[in-house]
Write a structure and sequence with these properties.
2 domains; binds uridine-5'-diphosphate-xylopyranose; 6-stranded parallel β-sheet; about 425 residues; Rossmann fold
Length: about 425
């Protein structure tokens, strides 16, 4: 099948490459010339494990190309909208300008019976609105919503082997003709047993925001328990292990720490609350405000604990922050809790050095005032305190004896509860976790 993918960021670039792997002929379209030239040279414009290898493999087949020219969408029968929906500046709602611009730019190139398939995370009601716009340009074209659930760091496998496929169609019914077309596109994952659910457009849009809200709630729940554990002298990691053994609860997404960040969960819960307000259902989501505030409190707590760890004052303290990305296996620093803490510490008088295996270029763009060092060993030298804020494997594997020989004072705050406290204490470190005695 000939497919166009509009928007080649974390979602679209991976989707384009994966669709080509599945045997389709794909053109990826993006307004960013730099991104297009990187992708055309089979280089991933961001760090995503497995993406570059995949790009090389599929580009060799001639089935995948990238361009900034929207007219390249002409001739494709299916057009995926994969552009971003960031938080609006100064407001909680989602900025829909990229989705709207991509859709309007596509309209002149639509042919009879084309499908426009939305994948971006959008406020409920967007699909119905875009359907009208698409229909006014091409009366036989159809708009569908097919939300994407990929996690950064696992994007390739999440796209090729999703947990489920959700098809939102205007009628909400299995016998809608577009269902068959999407089934052909996803023939391989469906053959591998991926369940697929057909539903109406608003339900499909809501599945994505509801899923992300649930994940955010789960993380904030365990972080609230960490606050209680701190107050009561209990251990949140053991608590999570124990409650997680109940398979109605499950252990995943119960890691207490400095909280969630990234380009999705924080802005998605805010946009969801804003949309609920517009729909007159704001009370239904007031709990998400609490989820958000528990999450933001984590960052303040880490700054306070660091001050305690440093003997009551941050002034002039040399602090090394391990990790800048919002999570491991990513170079994404959007709303990164690690960087937000690093910047706060620096503002309060600490001398902060940040290290990360992949995210330093992006971090320096966002917070140019911080000092960055790629080498972990150099970053550790003469530090008064270490903060583990993104749990990259190489930081989990740090040797506490070797590290103790580099720092000025062996103090560590484990912001992800990723280290073994007994081991670090045995090597002479003052160890603090979050919600751990
Ligand atoms: C998320 C959803 O998981 C994905 O399904 C959706 O498509 C996009 O948003 P992503 O933003 O890539 O994916 O990251 P995710 O793995 O969900 O982690 C989000 C944040 O939560 C990270 O900052 C992570 O460190 C944090 N987190 C996760 C915790 O603090 N504790 C946990 O137990 C799990």
């Amino acid at each position: 099948m000939r497919i166009s993918v509009i928007g080649c960021g974390y979602l679209g670039a991976v989707h384009a490459a994966c669709m080509a792997t599945l045997g389709h002929e794909v053109v990826g379209i993006d307004t960013d010339e730099n991104k297009v030239s990187e992708l055309s040279a089979a280089r991933a414009p961001f760090f995503e494990p497995g993406l570059e290898t995949l790009l090389k493999e599929v580009q060799a087949t001639g089935r995948l190309s990238f361009t900034t020219d929207m007219s390249a969408a002409q001739g494709s029968s299916v057009h995926f909208i994969c552009v971003g929906t960031p938080q609006k500046k100064g407001e909680n709602g989602a900025d829909m300008s990229y989705v709207d611009a991509a859709t309007s730019a596509l309209l002149p190139y639509l042919s009879a019976d084309d499908l426009v398939v939305g994948k971006s995370t959008v406020p409920v009601g967007t699909a119905a609105r875009l359907h009208e716009i698409v229909r006014s340009a091409e009366p036989t074209a159809e708009l569908l919503w097919n939300p994407e659930f990929l996690r950064e760091g696992h994007a390739v496998s999440d796209t090729l082997h999703p947990d489920r496929l959700v098809y939102g169609v205007l009628t909400g019914s299995e016998d809608h003709p577009a269902v068959d077309v999407l089934d052909q596109i996803y023939a391989q994952p469906l053959k591998d047993g991926t369940p697929r659910l057909v539903m109406d457009l608003p339900t499909a849009e809501l599945v994505k925001t509801a899923a992300n809200s649930f994940l955010a709630t789960k993380i904030s729940f365990i972080n609230a328990m960490a606050e209680l554990c701190d107050a009561a002298g209990a251990d949140v990691s053991l608590l999570a292990d124990a409650i997680g053994m109940d398979d109605r609860i499950g252990r995943k997404f119960l890691n207490a720490g400095i909280g969630f960040g990234g380009g999705c969960l924080p802005k998605d819960i805010r946009a969801f609350m804003a949309r609920a307000g517009e729909l007159g259902a704001d009370q239904a989501l007031t709990f998400l405000r609490e989820v958000d505030s528990i999450n933001m409190r984590r960052r303040i707590r880490v700054v306070e604990l660091t001050r305690e760890l440093c003997g009551g004052s941050l002034l002039g303290q040399r602090i090394t922050v391990l990790g800048a990305a919002f999570k491991p296996e990513s170079d994404d620093v959007r709303d990164s809790p690690a960087l937000s803490v690093a910047a706060q510490l620096q503002l309060q008088g600490a001398v902060v050095t940040v290290t990360d295996p992949e995210a330093l270029v992006n971090a320096a763009r966002r917070f140019p005032e911080l000092h960055y060092e790629r080498s972990t060993d150099i970053a550790l030298q003469r530090a008064d305190a270490l903060l583990l804020l993104t749990e990259w494997q190489e930081y989990r594997d740090l040797d506490p004896y070797g590290a103790a020989a580099l720092v000025a004072t062996p103090r560590i705050l484990d912001g992800r509860n990723a280290l073994n406290p007994t081991k670090w204490r045995a090597a002479g470190w003052t160890y603090r976790g979050l919600g751990r005695p």
